[in-house]
Design goal:
The complex is a heterodimer of chains A (107) and B (121).
Chain A (H helix, E strand, L loop, with lengths): L3 E4 L2 E4 L5 E7 L7 E6 L6 E5 L3 E2 L7 E6 L2 E6 L8 E7 L6 E2 L3 E5 L1
Parallel strand pairs in A: 2-11
Antiparallel strand pairs in A: 1-3, 3-8, 4-5, 4-9, 5-6, 7-8, 9-10, 9-11
Chain B lengths: L2 E5 L3 E2 L5 E8 L8 E8 L6 E7 L4 E3 L7 E6 L4 E6 L8 E9 L6 E4 L3 E5 L2
Parallel strand pairs in B: 2-11
Antiparallel strand pairs in B: 1-3, 3-8, 4-5, 4-9, 5-6, 7-8, 9-10, 9-11
The chains are: A mainly beta (107), B mainly beta (121).
């Protein structure tokens, strides 16, 4: 099974900061990676699919990059509504896996 | 706009079977364009993919849960279901149903609001 490791697990940042979260896969997954944002008490929201394709309606300050085993989610200028937990998910085969999550909170 | 709604008991006794349903509205579970999936989240923890089903009935499960989980689809009622056998306390979680495009797996773009299930006697 493919394992996903996100880093960091926790991140303290301020409004306006550039934030980068990394997701590493235990084996190559091409570009079959998605990123989600989850706020407390809410269902996750799809931000990015196919490693770098922004889901419709998602602000352009979110971007994704990478392929193979290393991927990044970048928020170019953190906004107050971006404080949340972020998850990556691999979709390389018929068995899917989520990363353990990265919580972004206010410094 | 397609919507998903989970339903089922909020409390299940240990060793019993957990049964949840996801009703699809504003669209069809018979669409050949999508997988229909279940995901869970234990209190204070991360997301765990449980499995997916295609309208034809093809299923794909998390290996760690495969021996206890069954996902089925009912095209006549436009819903899909989850059963988890022999539940234990560790099965306590918020359970979500969701949709994912089949063509080039794109992630779950539509989610239900989630339903909380507690395993306790």
């Amino acid at each position: 099974d493919i394992q996903l490791t996100q880093s960091p697990s926790f991140l303290s940042a301020s409004v306006g900061d550039r934030v980068t979260i990394t997701c590493r896969a235990s084996q190559g997954i091409s570009s079959y990676l998605a990123w989600y944002q989850q706020k407390p008490g809410k269902a996750p929201k799809l931000l990015i699919h196919a490693a770098f394709t922004l889901q419709s309606g998602v602000p352009s300050r979110f971007s994704g990059s990478g392929s193979g085993t290393e991927f990044t989610l970048t928020i170019s200028s953190l906004q107050p509504e971006d404080f949340a937990t972020y998850y990556c998910q691999e979709l390389n085969s018929y068995v899917w896996t989520f990363g353990q999550g990265t919580k972004v909170d206010s410094k | 706009q397609l919507q998903l709604q989970e339903s089922g008991p909020g409390l299940v006794k240990p060793s019993d079977t957990l049964s949840l349903t996801c009703t699809v509205s504003g669209g069809s579970v018979s669409s050949g364009d999508y997988y229909w999936g279940w995901i869970r989240q234990p209190p204070g923890k991360g997301l765990e993919w449980i499995g997916n089903i295609y309208y034809s009935g093809n299923t794909y499960y998390n290996p760690s849960l495969k021996s206890r989980v069954t996902i089925s689809v009912d095209t006549s009622q436009n819903l899909f279901s989850l059963k988890v056998d022999s539940v234990i306390a560790a099965d306590t979680a918020v359970y979500y149903c969701a949709r994912s495009y089949v063509g080039a797996p794109d992630g779950f773009d539509i989610w239900g609001q989630g339903t909380r299930v507690t395993v306790s006697s």
